[in-house]
Design a protein that fits this description.
Radius of gyration: 16 Å
Oligomer: single chain
Strand content: 25-35%
Number of helices: 3
CATH topology: 2,3-Dihydroxybiphenyl 1,2-Dioxygenase, domain 1
Largest sheet: 4 strands, mixed
């Protein structure tokens, strides 16, 4: 048996603000929404999902590269975007706190770090292609 979908389920104290930020500002399309007398939930599409598991040393290394110091908790959500500087600015204008502006990483992507609604720390990344390439190749690493 193989998993067919991964959902990251986030409990947001300010549901409306989290929905506005992730759906309306970041642009994650709404797949479904449900409400009952017990509450509300909205499922947003975020493209392809992967589960990245890092040991503490690697997580610390990634934080040093992207931010310059250890800042992430147990979970960090990463979104691949076409233009990480522009999306970073857009999300900051919508209320996210920029922890680190976009930086070119050793794995050849342009990554920024933000604190977003619902207590999520976000990485925005733009793949830049193979080092020395045209930028149209997909980075592997």
């Amino acid at each position: 048996m193989t998993a067919r979908e991964m959902r990251l389920v986030v409990t947001a104290a300010d549901y409306e603000e989290a929905l506005r930020f992730y759906r309306d500002v970041l642009g994650l399309p709404e797949r479904a929404a449900y409400s009952s007398p017990d509450g509300r939930v909205t499922i947003l599409e975020a493209g392809r999902a992967t589960l990245e598991i890092a040991d503490p040393s690697q997580a610390e290394f990634i934080d040093r590269v992207e931010v310059g110091r250890r800042v992430a908790g147990h979970i960090r959500v990463a979104f691949e975007v076409d233009d990480s500087p522009a999306v970073t600015a857009k999300l900051a204008g919508a209320g996210a706190t920029v922890i680190a502006e976009p930086v070119r990483t050793p794995w050849n992507s342009l990554n920024s770090r933000l604190d977003g609604p619902a207590g999520l720390q976000l990485t925005l990344f733009t793949e830049l292609g193979e080092p020395g390439g045209t930028g149209s190749e997909t980075a592997q690493g």
